[in-house]
Design brief:
Distance between the termini: 33 Å
Protein name: Major facilitator superfamily (MFS) profile domain-containing protein
Number of domains: 2
Pfam family, one: MFS_1
Helix content: over 70%
CATH superfamily of the largest domain: MFS general substrate transporter like domains
Order of helices and strands: HHHHHHHEEHHHHHHHHHH
Structural class: mainly alpha
GO molecular function: transmembrane transporter activity
InterPro entries: MFS (IPR011701), MFS_trans_sf (IPR036259)
Transmembrane segments: 12-34, 54-73, 80-97, 103-128, 140-162, 198-219, 246-267, 287-305, 317-337, 343-365, 405-427
Shape: globular
């Protein structure tokens, strides 16, 4: 009865929240869409893999620009209207981009789509926060889960449209009574054979479809003269700790965000391509399936992690995740280049291991430090920069030597493990409190990160 009553009393806010979730779903889809189709775009654009892989940081660069302007835009305009326009822009430019055959045009369109993604990324979080006020924590967790689901489903959408791996030549027999002969026909795929643009169009269509009810929400709010404030919910407050303690904690969290975003993006975007180009020589559809498994572990492990915080210490769970990361790195480097079982186990353990790390780090630090509006960009911008730069660098290294991709993952993983362990010890020793890192169930759930990770 309570659930039914809650739904009836809040049906408008729930409907509005689900529209935001679908918007965030499309953002997650856009993040992995390029990684799943890079090999086919390489054929479509008639460019080498290293060059095509730069489309990932180009879109991310637009994401950074959009994030920088999102705060100002969100204060001056109705957020439902802005999200409606962002979905339209994303749909138009994301869906059109792969239809071009020149790299510069594709990059330009993806950059514009990235700007819309950056604005929507910030406004989705603030809109959910304003909609549910002090009850927003669980709704924000659902929001970021929708991003993971989008990242997970997109490779599945791409698979039917990918060109299957095959030998570049096919031998056929042309037999006649007088002159039996064997003719070799070149079967190398051409740009006309590429169908990956249809996957882009599907995601674009979903994004544009969501824009319609968001427009309705805007006109409804305008007609009812909704008084929801677009100002910051939590004004900047003075920290109770010495500045150097606060700064060191923020720097550690920013590094963790940078490494988490980077590791997740490198594996999620390039893992499928590595499995095809490495000594494993997996077919592209199996490679995309590998990426799907990684995103499944990365997205849905939190459905296990969060309930477990009710029955056991969060510190123990985090130490277990650290162990998963260590084993994942040891299995991947360098064995995943030659043994399929190693790449499956390694990517699975890494997906599970890094899934709650940034969220837990954010929550751990927010217990001691007030993470104000001025501090948040310092934490999140390095993460987005890592998400942009590291896949491009890893792709360049992989183009020259495939196994270097695994060592790159290993380096990021080791740095993340060390930094995360340092933050745990730092919070325990420097921010001394009666209960240390151990918290009650209610407190643990209330301080989980609102980051999509």
């Amino acid at each position: 009865m309570k659930v039914t009553r809650f739904i009836c009393d809040n049906r408008y806010r729930i409907f509005k929240s689900f529209l935001v979730y679908f918007t965030f779903f499309c953002l997650g889809s856009a993040t992995t869409l390029l990684g799943s189709s890079l090999l086919d775009l390489e054929i479509s654009l008639n460019a080498d893999f290293a060059k095509v892989s730069y489309l990932i940081p180009v879109r991310s660069a637009g994401h950074i620009v959009g994030s920088a302007f999102a705060g100002v835009i969100g204060q001056k305009f109705n957020r439902s209207l802005v999200l409606c326009i962002c979905n339209l822009i994303s749909g138009i430019f994301l869906g059109t981009a792969p239809n071009f055959k020149q790299f510069e045009y594709v990059a330009c369109f993806l950059f514009i789509a990235g700007i819309a993604h950056g604005i929507a990324d910030v406004l989705c979080n603030t809109l959910i926060t304003d909609t549910w006020k002090d009850k927003c924590t669980n709704w924000l967790q659902a929001l970021h889960m929708s991003w993971g689901i989008g990242s997970l489903i997109t490779p599945v959408i791409c698979r039917p449209f990918l060109i299957p791996e095959q030998d570049e030549t096919q031998t056929t027999t042309n037999e006649t009574l007088k002159d039996p002969s064997i003719t070799t026909i070149n079967m190398k795929p051409t740009a006309d054979d590429v169908k990956a643009q249809y996957a882009f169009m599907i995601i674009a269509a979903i994004s544009m479809f969501i824009a319609l009810p968001l427009g309705y929400i805007y006109f409804k709010e305008r007609s009812l003269q909704n008084k929801i404030s677009n100002k910051q919910i939590n004004p900047d407050t003075k920290q109770k700790w010495a500045p150097w303690k606060v700064n060191v904690g923020i720097i550690l969290l920013a590094i963790i965000g940078h490494l988490t975003y980077s590791l997740e993006s490198v594996i999620g975007s390039l893992g499928a391509s590595f499995s095809v180009k490495s000594a494993l020589h997996m077919d592209k559809k199996t490679g995309v399936l590998l990426a799907t498994v990684f995103w499944s572990c990365f997205s849905f492990y939190r459905l296990i992690f969060i309930p477990l915080t009710f029955v056991t210490s969060e510190v123990k769970l985090l130490l277990m995740n650290t162990l998963f990361m260590i084993i994942g790195v040891l299995v991947c480097v360098p064995w995943a280049n030659t043994y399929q079982i190693c790449i499956w186990i390694g990517f699975t353990l890494l997906g599970v291991g890094i899934s709650p790390i940034f969220s837990a780090s954010y929550g751990m630090l927010s217990k001691h430090i007030v993470l104000t509006g001025k501090i948040s960009p310092i934490i999140f911008i390095p993460g987005v920069l890592g998400e942009s730069a590291h896949p491009a660098l890893a792709a360049t290294l992989m183009a020259n030597n495939q196994i270097s991709f695994l060592y790159y993952i290993g380096l990021l993983g080791v740095l993340l493990i060390i930094t995360f362990a340092t933050l745990m010890v730092y919070c325990k020793k420097v921010f001394k409190s009666p209960d240390g890192l151990h918290r009650g169930v209610k407190d643990r759930l209330s301080t989980l990160s609102i980051s999509r990770h």
